[in-house]
Structure of 3'-5' exonuclease KapD:
Amino acid sequence: MQAKDHQYLFLDFEFTMPENKTKPRGFFPEIIEAGLVSVINGQVYDQFSSYVKPVHFPTLTERCKSFLNIAQEQVDQGISFEELVHWLQEYDRLCPNTVVTWGNMDMKVLRHNCLQANLPFPFTGEHRDLAMEYKMFFGERNQTGLRKAVQEYGKEGVGKAHCALDDAFTTYNIFNLVEKDKKYLAKPEQPTIGERVDFSQLLKKFAL
């Protein structure tokens, strides 16, 4: 890695959820699937995907399994949350980075899960909430869902919704679309006097 390298980490998590609005006592969402796309200097450098074993509420609810299309056996065979934090730290150490998520829930749950597990928060760079940027950029009243935002660009999301790695790649794709629009709409620099005046025409005029 060179000193000037910068990494964008496009991140998506899926979480446990209660069976209904009445949460069990002490319930909080735990990460059960992680998807990450590492992009360095505009090129996809690496990707990471894994199921994660929940600790505090290890048995998935029927609602959770149905909504996320995740089986109990998949999370039972997943890595531990401690291993997940280790992997995220490894990506963070590669070079200066910016973590990009669609919405702020991923980072909130990650922070809370780290506190519960008495583990350090793995990221040292800044965080960008792309959903909020999209909302502000297009003047939306409500926050738009990831897949709907992509469709509004006339595109389709990668793979399946609520698959962490597919959603991470979809976040990466819409990030590129929004950044391209921002550059297009950016106020151009003031032209120089040489750009504003056609000197060839001016010389012809004085030559007459």
In short: The chain has a mean pLDDT of 90. The radius of gyration is 23 Å. The longest helix spans residues 164-185. The beta strands are 7-15, 31-40, 43-51, 97-101, 126-129.
